[in-house]
Amino acid sequence: MKRRILAGFATAMLTVAGLTFAAPAQASTSSDASVQAINCHAKESVRIRQSKSTGSTALGLFPKGAGAECGGASEGGTFTACGYTDGYFWIAINYQGIRGYVALYCITRP
Length: 110
Known about the structure:
With 110 residues, the protein is α+β, with helices and mostly antiparallel strands. Helix content is 22%, strand content 45%. The chain has one domain: SH3 Domains (SH3 type barrels, Roll). It has 1 helix and 7 strands. The strands form 2 sheets. It has a 5-stranded antiparallel beta sheet, with no helix packed on it. A two-stranded antiparallel ribbon has the order 2-3.
């Protein structure tokens, strides 16, 4: 009887843990959003987008001076941000569990 209770408890905890960690990953719809553990910082406050387009859903804000994990840059839709009028390179980002994309020219790397 005691084993059944412990097994049920362990299953419940794994289920809760899976739900907790699955939510942020669902924000990204592209496999390009995989993030490598490379630190970056925001030059200016910029919105984190679901895909590489200013027309895509804003998932959150990457505030000026904040640090995050950033992956590689890739081409996407054009943007006007951080001093550039027709930039088109985006970078995959993971900021406090929010996975998405920001304009490449809005970040710095150490």
